[in-house]
Design goal:
449 residues, alpha/beta, FAD/NAD(P)-binding domain, Polyamine Oxidase, Chain A, domain 2, eight-stranded mixed beta sheet, six-stranded mixed beta sheet, binds flavin-adenine dinucleotide, oxidoreductase
Length: 449
Amino acid sequence: SSTRCSVIIVGAGVSGISAAKVLAENGVNDLVILEASDRIGGRIRKEDFGGLSVELGAGWIVGVGGKESNPVWELANKSSLRTCFSDYSNARYNIYDQSGKIIPSGLAAASYSKAVDSAIQRLRNQEAKLRGLSTITEPPSIPKTPIELAIDFILHDFEMPEAEPISTYTDFGEREFLVADERGYELLLYKLAEDFLLTSDGKIVDSRLKLNKVVRELHHSRNGVILTTEDGSIFEANYVILSVSVGVLQSDLISFRPPLPKWKTEAITKCDVIVYTKIFLKFPYKFWPCGPGTEFFIYAHERRGYYTFWQHMENAYPGSNILVVTLTNGESKRVEAQTDEETLKEAMGVLRDMFGPDVPDAIEILVPRWWNNRFQRGSYSNYSLLANQPDFADMKAPVGPIFFTGEHTSEKYSGYVHGAYLSGIDTANALLEEMKNEKEGDKESSLES
Ligand code: FAD
């Protein structure tokens, strides 16, 4: 048996929820949300760890204090989400070498500006290439020393990559706030959902939200869509909004029948997926400096990205004795493939390099696996500078009754929670427009006949 409704939304992350909310507010209540996992939130995800809840996915509200107000910051204020101002510009003054010495600030600053200069040079060269100019002036210098490698990693892997200027900063401001709330970043999602889904005791009990429904097949035609889930359920609708990540679209989790057109699959394949991993470590006591300007610190190693970027959680949760180290891409994939014991051993080696042999063993470790999660396949999209306008348009454009949404469809804010949130609104509005046109078309054709 199958259920037919007006719109199916695949995925209950930020974009899926915000799209559903806009539809419901516009009278489209005949909708179903199919979510593969056993919870809403997607890449907003908290987990109990060391007596607190920590954020495995999005952790910061990025872009605050600018000329426009970040809608996610507004949601956070409305729900009194607890946040801490976060400033990692100090990290460059806390660079440790492998013998535990802090790199003198003069040297650190010099390496930093050299890295920034070479990043700018790289951008200019790319731009020149893009415009077909042959005026490539000087090749950017290649980072070689452990300090240069560490700074290069921070600039390109930790902070946002290539594309400048970053619209998030220019539109919403350059301040960033760390979410430090036991209810989790996901509180914002529950607040959004509450407005249109039935809840009881803070839980969503609306039967239109269906968890543990992994969409595997999507038939589409002029008459609508038929979706089949892994457990054999069938859902039919006039339209579908697909909010799965670009990593999932690149994988074979969902088969499209007929296959998606070439322009669409090309846009999907071209998009880079970043893997970004926050490893949490809990200690019996603190052994790292905790005063002002110490929240973030860097380990300089000859291998780029090897346990480079560290954060202590004492500002957010005093007395929590938790450290977080961020890995990306190749290092993330490497660590995902090994056991947590092996990862713990590596991390402890790094900490003993920085703080001496007496550092106590961590008593707990948490290693998220975004790359191997078949409902994610990575952390977020990254459009290189070389991605031009049409790529975005193609990523976003509907294919018949299939509408696309999610962080990766946001031209200005891809990679962020606010990008996902705004993309959901955009996609829902585009679909509402289409539904209106369809209706008018029907009226006209019935008048004609
Ligand atoms: P998702 O949240 O991925 O939602 C898609 C949903 O679809 C998921 O729930 C998934 O389970 C479901 N799904 C997938 N396949 C299927 C299927 N076949 N059938 C049914 N359902 C399916 N952003 C920030 O602004 N600040 C940060 O500090 C930040 N840090 C980040 C750190 C990490 C480690 C990660 C992973 C992301 C981070 N982001 C950050 C990015 C931010 O989390 C995302 O941009 C945003 O949450 C994406 O929302 P979405 O709705 O586009 O996708």
